[in-house]
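Second attempt. The first submission of TetR/AcrR family transcriptional regulator had a stray character pasted in from the spreadsheet, which I only caught after the job came back as garbage. Lesson logged: always re-copy from the clean sequence file. Corrected sequence (214 aa) follows.
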Amino acid sequence: MSTVVTTYHQRVAQEKRALIVTAATALFLELGYDRTSLARIAECSGVSRATLFKQFPSKAALFDAIVTESWSTADEEEPPPAGNIVDGLGIIGRRYAELLGRAQMTDLFRIVIAELPRFPELANAQFSHGKLPYFESVRSYLLAEHEAGTVRVEDVDLAATQFLGMISNYVFWPTLLVPGWEVSAERVAQVVDEAVRTIAARYAATAPGASTND
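This time the job returned cleanly.
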């Protein structure tokens, strides 16, 4: 019985956490980070102030949670195995496109951009808790492929930036600037596929005995 009760309370806590994060995101967009109080967030999420403060002792902690959840993926702990750069980057590219296609990702960037002049720490949080960890996962994958001899990547930071940039520049950044910008699922798949092909061709391992000089 104790296990059942514990599981129930954990589920309730997770549901309340989701309500708080959703309400906070909406209020940050509507009122701005500075003008949104934790009390207002508790009211709009339908939880008590005690419940909110138990989960998030400060507004900064709540924003960190928004960043972390916006960048989270169900299978992020399972990186593709090295050995096939096309298959591996295909998995990573589709994950990235799915992340960028989430409404909460667009909302997160809009909050950060709007509040950057007054609250640069929000941008720092977005980078350190969201963008950077994801970038490092892609970088680590490319390094593993390099060490496995699948590709030859001397600058993994640059290669990771090139790959992610080819995807985000088409499927994400225009959504912040162009009203009504939408990209079909078919087009997203094409963008990811072309990015994979470009990286695979650019960093193809040199054939045995071939010259490495340009």
